[in-house]
Amino acid sequence: MGTNNSLDEFEVIAALIHDVYAMFGDAISITQRVLTIEKVRKRCTAEGISFLAKTLPKLGKAFDKALLGTTMMNAADLRLKSQVGSKLPRLLG
Asked: Is the pTM of this model over 0.70?
């Protein structure tokens, strides 16, 4: 059995981003896709699997709650940096 490398998981995320772009290309510019993939790669390299296993799921749950209207999304509650002039998380930049 090989070693567990966070970049293997990154490749899955990169493939998902490519799939989203293929399906919804009008909503995501090529520049946004490239920058997002690079940011995810950097976060995976710096934080390892915890970025994929903890940070992204935590954001996803908060996003679901915000869409349901049960709670407002607040970066400070998620221990994430916020967008300038907003309480929304600036997860991927």
From this structure: no
Give the Cα separation of 64 and 54 in Å (integer).
16
Dump pLDDT digits (tens) for 49-84: 888 788 888 888 888 888 888 888 888 888 888 888
Q: Which two tokens stand for residue 50?
A: 């915890």
3-state secondary structure the chain: CCCCCHHHHHHHHHHHHHHHHHHCCCCCCHHHHHHHHHHHHHHHHHHCHHHHHHHHHHHHHHHHHHHHCCCCCCCCCCCCCECCCCCCECCCC
HSE-up (13 A, CA, CB side) for residue 28: 16
